[in-house]
Design a protein that fits this description.
The structure holds 2 protein chains of 2 kinds. By secondary structure, chain A is an alpha+beta fold. Chain A folds into 4 domains: 129 residues, Beta-Lactamase, CATH 3.30.450; 44 residues; 106 residues, Beta-Lactamase (2-Layer Sandwich), CATH 3.30.450.20; 173 residues, Reverse transcriptase/Diguanylate cyclase domain (Alpha-Beta Plaits, 2-Layer Sandwich), CATH 3.30.70.270. Chain B has one domain: 3-Layer(aba) Sandwich (D-Maltodextrin-Binding Protein, domain 2), CATH 3.40.190. Chain B contains 6 helices and 5 strands. Chain B has a 5-stranded mixed beta sheet, with helices on both faces. The longest helix of chain B is centred in the first third of the chain and has 13 residues. The N and C termini of chain B lie far apart (34 Å). Classes of the chains: A alpha+beta, B alpha/beta. Chains A and B meet through helix 1 and helix 2 of A and helix 3 and helix 5 of B.
Chain lengths: 531, 146
């Protein structure tokens, strides 16, 4: 049994109290009994005095020793008297053990005939031992009675307390101990305590359990809701096609999704905790990003930009970056940055651009693109030389060896031409075996040199591996100058074209001729004449 | 002597009013022989003599109390006025003392005249008589009923 259990404690307290109260009451009762007995004894002695006083008075009056002895002997024959004495002026009669002491009662004896005349003294000493013994015997009886009473009350108290209070409480405690909160378990109300405080306690505890269960159910459903919501958010976040990053103003990354992780991986960069403000270290054009963000934030807008990322891979990666300022609940600024990969679109656009502006076979600018470039040059009034070139003897090669061989030859020619030109020069396939070259800021001498170089390159034989045959081509070139020859682009082209045709015609007569200038009136006139 | 007694009886009977008068108004006196040296006694000394404490006068000369026999009116009156007790209580007192071996020293006389005669003839005697009966041979030492 539990040493500090309710029953043991209660029993100890009750027993202790009973013993202490019993001891105290016994002592008090003894004291009272003794005092009472003493008072009774004194009263008895007074009565004894009243009984013997006439005789004692006579004895004293007459100084009669015999009579006095009779009185004294009569007194000491009483239990409550230890000793007695009669004293007159001339006589002293006393019992054997008489001794004057403090508790001796003294009575004045008067003359039987004259009430005012003192004739002697009567001393009576009460028997204290007898009184004490009597008080003791009464007290002992009382003590036994009190002890029995205390014992009975103790036993009844313990039993009643145990059965009425302790056991129900212990049972309730045990029941409560085994109940797990939040379930539908409840404590049974003891049958004998339907309306008592203990019953009330059980009701209250059950009420509390009800509330707990409700609360826990509510919390559980709330938690489930939050969990579902969280998993959805997580799904949304993790599966977003855009990289989403939450960044502190100093650039520390708080949160990022898998897409961001794979993007960084794709860039060949290490995954770091900080890539500078707005992840700027990831971008090639940091400055532009910064400017965009400043402008947008000044207008309370999200910053949007399409920028290329730094990449250690061959593939160029372009993203649409959106930086949004978020204010948290505790008024902290954070940036939400989304990086949407637009590389594919960029690629498609550049592919389209390629298709639109370049010749499929030779990868040179096509006629349309070349015209655009030329328009650009005339619009900006940059002086340039326009060379119109046409290959000779190309058709027979095409006919003899087939189109594939023709194409191969065209590619070879294009690359040879490309090698002989500066970067700023424009080289385009004008159509069929016709090429147009524009040389900005070129003088006539320079043009002559370039053309000589071009002619030399073209005349080198090209080995057709499929046919195991070496072929070579020559070209006719007509040149016109902007703005000296013509200001209108169409006229300029026509002039170059005319010069080129002039060369082609004269070629029969002069095999060395390959170049003519539109400005050369004689040639043109000759040409006109021939026509 | 017999004649004398009869005379007295007739006297008492014929003069009841006088007698009553005498009892009412006439004080009792305590007398001794004229030759006795004692001139006066205190009440206590008188009680001590008659209640048996002492058998001597204050001057230590022997004293013989003279009593009337039986329940004489004068005797009754004497004890009533001296110690405030009825004669029966006084008798009870004496009978109690009798058992302790104490003997009474008094002399008993049947009437006043004999009592007076005894006192006159005895110097140690002391007795009580109505005041009217005082003779020259007697000396008053105490007056009761004053």
């Amino acid at each position: 049994m539990n040493k500090s259990g309710l029953v043991i404690r209660l029993a100890i307290v009750i027993v202790f109290t009973a013993v202490i109260v019993g001891l105290i009451t016994t002592q008090i009762f003894f004291r009272f009994t003794f005092l009472n007995e003493q008072a009774l004894g004194e009263q008895s002695i007074h009565q004894l005095y009243n009984t013997v006083s006439p005789t004692a008075s006579i004895a004293s009056y007459l100084d009669d020793e015999e009579l006095a002895k009779e009185v004294v002997n009569g007194l000491i024959s009483n239990d409550i008297v230890t000793s007695a004495a009669i004293k007159t002026d001339t006589l002293m009669v006393k019992s054997d053990n008489y001794q004057l002491s403090s508790n001796t009662l003294e009575f004045v004896l008067f003359s039987p005939f004259q009430k005012e005349r003192r004739v002697g003294l009567l001393f009576i000493k009460e028997n204290e031992a007898y009184l004490r013994a009597k008080a003791n015997s009464i007290s002992t009886t009382n003590t036994i009675v009190v002890a029995i009473e205390a014992l009975i009350i103790t036993i009844i108290s313990i039993l009643v307390t145990y059965y009425v209070i302790t056991r129900p409480i212990i049972n309730i405690g045990k029941a409560l101990h085994s109940i797990s909160p939040g379930t539908d378990e409840r404590i049974d109300k003891p049958t004998s305590h339907q309306k008592s405080e203990i019953g009330q306690l059980v009701d209250d505890v059950n009420g509390l359990l009800d509330k707990t269960e409700q609360q826990m159910l509510r919390e559980k459903s709330l938690r489930d809701e939050v969990q579902v919501l969280e998993s959805r958010f997580r799904m949304l976040f993790e599966n977003a096609t855009s990289a989403i990053v939450l960044v502190e103003p100093q650039g520390d990354i708080l949160l990022y999704n898998e897409t961001f992780e794979s993007l960084v991986e794709k860039l060949g960069l290490p995954l770091k905790k900080n890539y500078g403000n707005y992840l700027q270290d990831l971008f090639i054009m940091k400055k532009e990003l910064h400017e965009q963000v400043q402008i947008a934030f000044a207008n309370n807008e999200s910053a949007t930009a399409e920028l290329e990322l730094i990449s250690y891979q061959e593939e160029q990666i372009w993203v649409q970056v959106v930086v949004t300022l978020l204010i948290t609940d505790d008024f902290q600024e954070n940036y939400q940055i989304t990086l949407h990969d637009i590389s594919k679109r960029k690629q498609q656009i550049s592919l389209l651009d390629q298709k639109a502006n370049y010749d499929n076979l030779t990868n040179l600018l096509n006629r349309h693109a070349a015209e655009q470039h030329l328009i650009q040059l005339t619009a900006t009034r940059v002086p340039f030389a326009l060379i119109m070139m046409d290959l000779n003897d190309f058709k027979p090669i095409n006919d003899i060896f087939g189109h594939d061989a023709g194409d191969e030859l065209l590619i070879h020619v294009s690359s040879q031409l490309m090698k002989s030109l500066r970067k700023a020069d424009i080289l385009s396939r004008w159509g069929g075996d016709e090429f147009v070259i524009a040389l900005p800021h070129a003088t006539k001498e320079e043009v002559v040199n370039v053309c000589a170089k071009l002619a030399a390159k073209l005349s080198k034989p090209h080995h057709l591996s499929q046919h195991n045959k070496s072929v070579f081509v020559t070209a006719c070139m007509g040149v016109s100058f902007y703005p000296n020859d013509q200001v209108e682009l169409l006229e300029l082209i026509r002039a170059a074209d005319k010069a080129m045709y002039f060369v082609k015609k004269e070629k029969c007569a002069n095999k060395e001729l390959y170049l003519a200038f539109a400005a050369d009136d004689a040639n043109l006139k000759k040409n006109h004449k021939a026509q | 002597m017999r004649y004398f007694t009869q005379f007295f009886a007739i006297l008492i009977l014929t003069l009841p009013n006088v007698s009553v008068q005498a009892q009412q108004s006439e004080p009792l006196v305590v007398v001794v022989n004229k030759a006795n040296p004692v001139d006066e006694l205190s009440r206590s000394e008188l009680i001590d003599l008659f209640m048996g404490k002492y058998v001597a006068f204050p001057d230590d000369s022997k004293a013989i109390p003279v009593e009337l026999k039986g329940e004489h009116e004068i005797k009754v009156e004497f004890y009533q006025s001296l110690v405030g007790m009825s004669l029966s209580r006084v008798n009870a007192y004496w009978s109690r003392l009798h058992f302790t071996g104490r003997k009474r020293a008094a002399v008993f006389k049947p009437n006043e005249n004999e009592l007076i005669a005894f006192i006159i003839s005895n110097e140690q005697a002391i007795g009580y008589v109505p005041q009217s009966l005082i003779t020259e041979d007697l000396k008053v030492v105490y007056i009761l009923n004053e």
